[in-house]
Design a protein that fits this description.
The chain is α/β, with parallel strands linked by helices. It has helices spanning about 20-30, 75-80, 95-105, 125-130, 140-145, 185-195, 210-225, 240-245, 275-280, 310-325, 325-340, 345-360, and strands at about 1-5, 35-45, 45-50, 55-60, 65, 70-75, 85-90, 110-115, 135, 150-155, 175-180, 200-205, 230-235, 250-255, 285-290, 305. The strands form three sheets. Strands 3-4-2-1-7-8-9-10 form an eight-stranded mixed β-sheet, sandwiched between helices. It has a six-stranded parallel β-sheet with strand order 13-12-11-14-15-16, with helices on both faces. Helix 5 links the parallel strand 9 and strand 10. The longest helix has 18 residues, at about 325-340. The protein is globular and about 60 Å long. The two termini are about 10 Å apart.
Length: about 375
């Protein structure tokens, strides 16, 4: 079986550092252990290389529709999919995903879709006809897509438990955030909730399109951080990320459904890969009770779930995990066990392969 994944934006320095970009690559790496697998993505320059058994093709984009990174336009996409036994697109309504789905539909190639936050197209009925199966990262994601239950399988996501593993507990200190520094991530609330004497490391870049609110948000965060022990670490290289998780006392994902600017966030969080990677590292987590996050965090067991935007509740949970060694040690063990038992990329790939085999066998 030859599976081709279509991801509109590359992950890493030439693309973006985000869960929607990391997910297709990590899943494809796991799948490549079992089937012939390729990722087709887009960037400012074309490239082709091997990542272990995984083949990666980067098509040189000509321009971005509406100047949005999820809508690159590039020649060669339809041709790149010609030899696929199955096409798996990421982001249902991204432009290259729609092109890939239509091309595969015409060729009668099975078509699978996974969304990472763009949401459904304008016509869910058309999506249901265009795609044979929706492999969603959470139950919440399935609900946002309004995908037919008969065509939907929740596969979640995972963490590489060999790469992300616990370290020396004596080296753990402070609070960690990993992700894009954008208003819907609620980092302003996290800084406000930081307990007295605690340190906070913010690993990630400020917004990808540099719109005015995101420029203002950078200024706001730096202003809030004055007088507090807050470090803006910038984009962390991939090989440094495991140590960052292992050395943190707690990881926080404080996403909100209404930003500090009063903007409503339609789809705040579908899964939260940083949560899974932190828990695999034995790092307890605190996450907002929003989107798909409660589906992967066992509240009171692997960490805590708090109401989005509740600064007092967030500070209280941080104080518990920073100050109670016994509680922290128990949650650290629970967190690791929870991911190993439920959320590895190998398990995610197994769920994918089951759906693939059913579709290819019926084609």
């Amino acid at each position: 079986m030859r599976v081709i994944h279509v991801s509109p934006t590359a992950f890493g320095g030439s693309g973006l550092y985000g869960g929607g970009e990391r997910y297709p690559v990590e899943l494809a790496r796991a799948l490549a252990q079992h089937v012939d697998c390729e990722v087709v993505t887009f960037g400012p320059r074309g490239a082709s290389y091997r990542d272990g058994p995984l083949h990666v093709t980067v098509l040189e984009r000509s321009f971005l529709l509406r100047r949005h990174p999820a809508h690159p336009v590039a020649g060669g996409l339809v041709r790149a999919l010609k030899r696929a036994d199955l096409v798996h697109t990421h982001h249902v309504r991204a432009f290259p995903s729609r092109v890939a789905a239509v091309a595969a539909y015409v060729r009668k190639q099975p078509r699978v879709a996974t969304d990472h936050g763009l949401g459904p197209g304008r016509s869910p009925a058309l999506d249901a006809r265009l795609f044979d199966r929706f492999l969603t990262v959470s139950r919440y994601s399935a609900a946002t897509l309004s995908s037919p239950a008969s065509k939907t399988t929740v596969i979640y996501g995972g963490a590489d438990t060999d790469r992300f593993h616990p370290g020396d507990e004596q080296l753990r200190q402070g609070v960690l955030f990993v992700g894009r520094l954008t208003p819907h991530k609620g980092i302003d609330r996290l800084i406000a909730a930081l307990p007295q004497g605690a340190t906070l490391t913010l690993a990630g870049t400020f917004g990808h399109d540099r719109e005015l609110p995101e420029r203002a948000y950078e200024a706001l965060l730096r202003s809030l951080a004055r007088g507090r022990d807050v470090r803006f670490a910038g984009p962390v290289p991939e090989d440094h990320l495991p140590a960052l998780y292992r050395h943190a006392r707690v990881l926080v994902l404080p996403s909100v459904d209404e930003t500090c600017y009063g903007k409503h966030v339609a789809i705040p969080e579908l899964l939260g890969l940083a949560l899974l990677e932190a828990m695999a590292s034995g790092t307890p987590v605190v996450a907002s009770n929003i989107g798909g996050l409660p589906e992967v965090v066992a509240d009171g067991v692997t960490g805590f779930v708090v109401e989005p935007g509740n600064v007092a509740a967030l500070r209280e949970r941080l104080e518990e995990l920073l100050g109670d060694d016994r509680l922290h040690a128990q949650m650290s063990r629970n967190a690791r066990d929870h991911v190993v038992g439920n959320f590895t990329w190998a398990r995610c790939a197994e769920r994918c392969l089951s759906a693939y085999e059913e579709l290819v066998g019926a084609a």
